[in-house]
Design goal:
mainly alpha, about 90 residues, about 0% strand
Length: about 90
């Protein structure tokens, strides 16, 4: 009888997921409330990254004659903008 009870206790312990360190931190920090200006800020980050790094790519491609640097600069700018948006809006 004790063996069956021990098996039932082990099965119930396996059904409950263990809270990891990331889950504990997520429970402690409340989510950041959205503001009206967040959309404009995200849009400005996206456009600014494309314009800045696209412009740098255009300048370098103009000097070197390698035409592919302009679109690469724009893609890099969008990627860095997305990374900055994720970093800025997900930290508390």
């Amino acid at each position: 009888m004790q063996g069956q009870q021990h098996q039932v206790e082990q099965a119930s312990q396996l059904d409950e997921p263990a809270a990891g360190p990331l889950e504990e931190h997520a429970e402690q920090a409340p989510p950041r409330p959205a503001r009206e200006a967040d959309g404009w800020q995200i849009l400005s980050y996206m456009l600014g990254g494309m314009i800045l790094y696209g412009g740098i790519g255009w300048l370098i491609s103009h000097w070197t004659g390698i035409a592919v640097l302009f679109p690469i600069g724009m893609i890099v700018g969008v990627g860095l903008s997305v990374a900055m948006i994720i970093f800025r809006f997900t930290r508390t």
